[in-house]
Amino acid sequence: MLDERKATILRAVVTEYIETAQPVGSGHVASSAEVNVSSATVRNDMAALEAEGYLAQPHTSAGRIPTEKGYRFFVDQLGGPGKLGVNESQQVRTFFSRTHGEMEQMLSDTSRLLSSLTHYAAVVVGPQHEVATIKSVQLVGLSPRLVLAVLVLSSGAIEKHSIELSADADDLIVNAAAVRLSTLIVGQTLASASSIDSHSLDLGESADVAIILRAALAVLGGEHRHDDQVFIGGTSDMVASFDAVRTVSEILRILEQQLVVVSLLEDVLDRGLSVAIGRETGNEALADCSIVVAPYVVDGETAGSIGVLGPTRMHYDQALSAVAVVANRLGRTLSEG
Amino acid sequence: MLDERKATILRAVVTEYIETAQPVGSGHVASSAEVNVSSATVRNDMAALEAEGYLAQPHTSAGRIPTEKGYRFFVDQLGGPGKLGVNESQQVRTFFSRTHGEMEQMLSDTSRLLSSLTHYAAVVVGPQHEVATIKSVQLVGLSPRLVLAVLVLSSGAIEKHSIELSADADDLIVNAAAVRLSTLIVGQTLASASSIDSHSLDLGESADVAIILRAALAVLGGEHRHDDQVFIGGTSDMVASFDAVRTVSEILRILEQQLVVVSLLEDVLDRGLSVAIGRETGNEALADCSIVVAPYVVDGETAGSIGVLGPTRMHYDQALSAVAVVANRLGRTLSEG
DNA sequence: CGCTGGCACTCTCGGGCTTCGACTGCTTAT
DNA sequence: ATAAGCAGTCGAAGCCCGAGAGTGCCAGCG
């Protein structure tokens, strides 16, 4: 629906605007390399593009800036993720060759890597615990009425929950409960463990042990997926792309709410997109922002997602390739462990 | 060295400037309640205060704004931390009555509380692990050559380290090592555990077990205090106090470096201060910021510190009282556990 | 001697005005 | 269809000017 020339012109406007943040006039476009028509012709086409909603004019005698629809077209016909620069891909390679063990540290470092690649804010959402199996469970009495349950998952993640008891429990009882709990849930996933009906196991237990077991299982089931691990880096870089402190403050307020950030990314992925532009993010406060997302795959299963958040006038090609490459490498690195 | 009236005038300038962010003229000061002299007299005194370095003039025909020295005097003679408003202290009370267990969650929530009280960025540095004793240690084999060591500390904190082995180890060996490790370090502090000489325990162990033990002890000693837990909240609030995006970006860059933040707070405390103003923070990028800090005490020992970061024109009295009250309550709450 | 009122001076801020330049849209010629 | 030219629009920048806020200083008063 957009003929060849109009597409070229639109592309030129978008790239120029991304670079300069200034409205782009017909003269600039006409003098650009890919366009071989006069500025008058460009003007006609730009008027058409504006009528179709791809461009907008801040005021009469100014150039044009892309609308969300304009960015969307640009991104879509951009096609594949493109290639990373040599320095960048070198940076990715050395990063992943050096990294090892310690999942949290690694995810946190990954967010730093991604933000340093793109100069936007990077978000890394850790793997869902639901798919990992429980490797070990331990109960540690911290004080007579406070017991800490520590789960080690096959992914290497650790989940801890404190359990408050209504009556004192000595070490013997706690240990007995721990042993019993181990036989019950080790090897299962968190999801299946939390669905164990605590009433089906009353028999054959001493009352004290049963109390602890029931409390432990309740805690497991209780705060489902309450701690997705989210790592956000590079906010200072991203902030520099905006010019109103007000805007910045609103964006930071979003980023402070980890739950919102997670669902933001997942909403985008659920809609089958890898880029959400402006209001497409579904959040009014991010009207001037775009999000680039990719899931990463561990052992054949989609485990989590990573993404960057930047201004709508973002370097989409770079961001897309950086996100794609990092997601890929991250998934592979996590699969080895 | 500052007579009564000059002090009053200085105080009036500072409070007014904190409120309005506008240079304060002699007329305003003269009409303020505490000052009963004419504006001419105020003018004379303000000139003197400027000569002594307490005030500065942006330009000739403008009012005066406080210098760092001016703020310093203001803060010092402010005396005690002052009182919190009723709403605020109510907020603190309900927060700490509701909170329980789960240290990390609690520290993170505390930083949110503190930022919501002050509208500045709040920093909460978790307790040092060095003083806590080891309650339990567990080794979990994730894969043949990867073992995860999980320590539970008496504070309820968890420390995990992954250990990479050069040879495969089966569960039996891992378990044997875990048992031996438990007898070695449970009950000790992290510091003393990490100072165990791994060569003194070769005797009587199977070679495989010894390898794991040595690796585990090495890991313990290795990354000393590498994970102070730092929780930062309310950056979006703080940002709103500034008007240049550039400044904001630099401040955020500081806050992204957790190590820097921790040492920032500790430097201030080490100098015996509870407030650092502008360059007193020791960081050029924070020239327009001030920090208010307080340590918190758990079981009679200084365990960690909390603080807020805001603009130099911060509401010092409110910040001081908020930080003091929260530090106090936090210490008490953590002591119970 | 300290305080005050008065006065002249300085400098920023905002409005109004003009100029400049970057665009556009349209019309006409090829 | 494309190009060229031309008139028109509108913001940005520069300028002037007056208003206002504030200062410093001086002379007089208690």
What does this structure look like?
- Chain A has 337 residues and is of the alpha+beta class.
- Chain A folds into 3 domains: 4-78, Winged helix-like DNA-binding domain superfamily/Winged helix DNA-binding domain (Arc Repressor Mutant, subunit A, Orthogonal Bundle); 86-128 and 228-336, Beta-Lactamase (2-Layer Sandwich); 130-222, Heat-inducible transcription repressor hrca homolog, domain 3 (Enolase-like, domain 1), CATH 3.30.390.60.
- The first copy, chain A, contains 13 helices and 10 strands.
- In chain A, a hairpin with a 2-residue loop joins β4 (134-143) and β5 (146-153).
- In chain A, α5 (86-98) runs parallel beside α13 and α6 packs antiparallel against α13 (316-336).
- The interface between A and B is large, with 41 and 40 residues.
- Chain A binds a DNA duplex (30 and 30 nucleotides) through residues 23, 25-27, 37-41, 43-44, 46-47, 57-63.
List the helices and strands and how they pair.
The structure is a homodimer of 337-residue chains.
Chain A: H1 4-20, H2 26-31, H3 39-51, E1 55-56, E2 65-66, H4 68-78, H5 86-98, H6 103-118, E3 121-125, E4 134-143, E5 146-153, E6 158-164, H7 171-185, H8 190-194, H9 207-222, E7 230-233, H10 235-239, H11 245-256, H12 258-270, E8 275-277, E9 289-298, E10 301-311, H13 316-336
Helix pairs in contact in A: 1-3, 5-13, 6-13, 7-9
Chain A binds a DNA duplex (30 and 30 nucleotides) through helix 3.
